[in-house]
Amino acid sequence: MRMITKAVVTALGLAAAASAHASFTYTTAPSQTNVPVPAAGVARNDFATELASAGVTSFDLGGVLGLTRAGAVDVFYWGKEAGYRNTFTLGSVTATTTTAGVDPWGARYVGTVLGLSSGALNFQFCATDISTCLTNAGNAGLNLGSAQSIGMRIASDGLSAILLWDDSGANRDDNHDDMIIQLRYRVPEPATLGLLGLGLLGAGVAARRRAKK
Q1: Does pTM top 0.85 for this prediction?
Q2: Who contacts 92 (Cβ-Cβ below 8 Å, separation ≥6)?
Q3: pLDDT one-digit tens code per residue, 14-68
Q4: Where does residue 19 fall: left (phi above 0), alpha (psi -120 to 50 degrees), or beta otherwise?
Q5: Are 136 and 123 in contact (CB under 8 A)?
Q6: DSSP assignment of 4-42
Q7: Integer Cα distance of 164 and 180 in angstroms
Q8: Nearest to residue 77, comparing CAs of 55, 98, 53, 52?
């Protein structure tokens, strides 16, 4: 039984380590990195102050966002400044802005997407009023001055990513505040790991009983 218990502890440790190393990553490298969030001028990002408070003072352009491991992702909508209605979609989760102008800054939980595979994520932003969309994959290689683009900033721990959409509604102003989305990787809860341990323990006991027969 001591050997089984040791195996369970080891398995739980490996599972916890695996979840800890799961993260957002670029499956296609950005073409521009550390682009400053514009805080002044015509191209000013209306949420530059709030983003700076959250540690986001720059973003990358032209990258494709992905996951290093399969898992679930929580989607949060943070705000927008746009004349168009904009929509973000990832799997079965959709966030839509319904009015022109500014939505105040603040986290709004939209939903959780389960069962995502490792690799590039399949999401898109759409400017609904002009029926144009840009996918995560289509963002590859884009730069400032592109008709539409998605700015991205992966957190230092790799467990969240900010997406800053520029919908081209104001003559390619490149302010990247037309819709701001945050994705958070969901680390398995301790209860889930506990169930895994119980399952391994049960399998070990059954194997030991069979060996005694």
Answers
A1: no
A2: 111, 113
A3: 444 444 578 999 999 999 999 999 998 878 999 999 999 999 999 999 999 999 9
A4: alpha
A5: yes
A6: HHHHHHHHHHHHHHHHHT--EEEEE--SEEEEEPP-SST
A7: 5
A8: 98
